[in-house]
Design goal:
Elements: H1 2-7, H2 9-14, H3 21-38, H4 42-62, H5 66-90, E1 98-100, H6 105-112, H7 122-139, E2 145-150, E3 168-174, H8 177-186, E4 193-198, H9 201-206, E5 214-220, H10 232-237, E6 239-250, H11 252-257, E7 260-265, E8 268-273, H12 279-287, E9 292-301, E10 304-313
């Protein structure tokens, strides 16, 4: 298109009267300079075509002939095509077969439950390993320890690493029936005492009848799947004095680049659009609930922070 415009430079300007020629010459020259800066963008192409169309219409008005008429009609057709393509693109098909918001996270996890564990990347595994290491630090010298895993999923990635421990107990809470079914399947035959609760995390926390307190409470790679933060005061009440809350999630800088968590199921892609989780915002909310921050570990992907694992303790004197 641009080559066509350049080929008609002399003819277009020659057909203009002396009075309008200086202004149009300046305008056309400006459009050519603008093209060098913005030609790589769709918006730039549209701007150039609009300018060229205006020039062609001015040419036609000054010198009614078949050549300016054909030029103007051609540019008008090109502009109409571009606008139609832009409108189609705005409403175009997502690159994913199924996209879920955090309000539909339960549907997402129901759909991907059987394929969920195979989705783990190296950096997700590093995150889980850091969580496992932290749990072992807290339970190694305790008999009858109890872990509460909020949003525990299939259990394959964390709980299964304690499968032969007869000194403890593991309770998983999850809102997805299919993830709960996978947890029960994965925990068959283990020595570890396990229990699973099919319930929304917010409903679980809102239930004031919880009589138990736990040595370790986990919220691992869960917050970014929730529509809003948890009630940290209620979470803190579930932690035993001397116990710990372990929070892990994807860094918001990584989420900004990769906003969807995707899982392939039978050749179809399911994508959950994650909510950015800012540790800098979590720390004051959690510490205000009576817990103290004990440390944070970052998991890096090359030069980018991929995830964080942060530990918060409840003082032994606090009840």
């Amino acid at each position: 298109m641009v080559q066509g415009v350049r080929a008609t430079d002399r003819r277009m300007l020659a057909g203009l009267g002396r009075r309008g020629q200086p202004a149009l010459t300046g305008l056309y020259s400006l459009s050519k300079h603008c093209w060098a800066a913005i030609r790589s963008t769709e918006l730039g192409l549209r701007v150039i075509n609009i300018i060229a169309l205006l020039l062609a219409v001015a040419w036609l008005a000054r010198s009614p002939d078949w050549e300016p008429a054909i030029t103007a009609l051609g540019l008008l057709g090109t502009l109409i095509f571009q606008e139609a393509r832009a409108a189609t693109g705005a409403k175009g098909k997502s690159p994913f077969d199924h996209v879920y918001s955090t309000n539909k996270a339960r549907d997402f996890y129901n759909a991907v439950a059987k394929s969920y564990d195979a989705r783990n990347s190296t950096f997700l595994l590093h995150t889980h390993r850091e969580v496992i290491r932290r749990i072992k630090e807290y339970v190694k010298d305790r008999d009858g320890w109890h872990v509460l895993d909020l949003g525990g999923g299939t259990g394959q990635l964390i709980a299964s690493h304690f499968y032969d421990n007869q000194r403890g107990e593991w309770t998983s809470v999850d809102s997805s029936p299919n993830m709960v079914a996978q947890f029960q399947h994965n925990m068959q035959g283990v020595k570890l005492t396990t229990g699973v609760v099919l319930r929304d995390i917010f409903e679980f926390l809102a239930d004031v009848r919880h009589p138990k307190k736990y040595d370790v409470v986990l919220i691992v790679l869960v917050l970014s799947s929730l529509p809003h933060d948890a009630d940290w005061a209620k979470v803190a009440k579930l932690v035993k004095p001397g116990g710990a809350l372990i929070v892990a999630d994807i860094e918001p800088s990584y989420t900004a680049i990769h906003p969807h968590f995707t899982v392939l199921v039978e050749g179809r892609s399911h994508a959950l659009r994650m909510r950015p989780t800012h540790l800098s915002e979590l720390i004051p909310m959690i510490t205000q609930s009576g817990l103290t921050q004990a440390g944070t570990q970052s998991v890096k992907q090359e030069q980018t922070n991929y995830s964080f694992v942060s530990v918060f303790n409840k003082p032994s004197s606090q009840h």
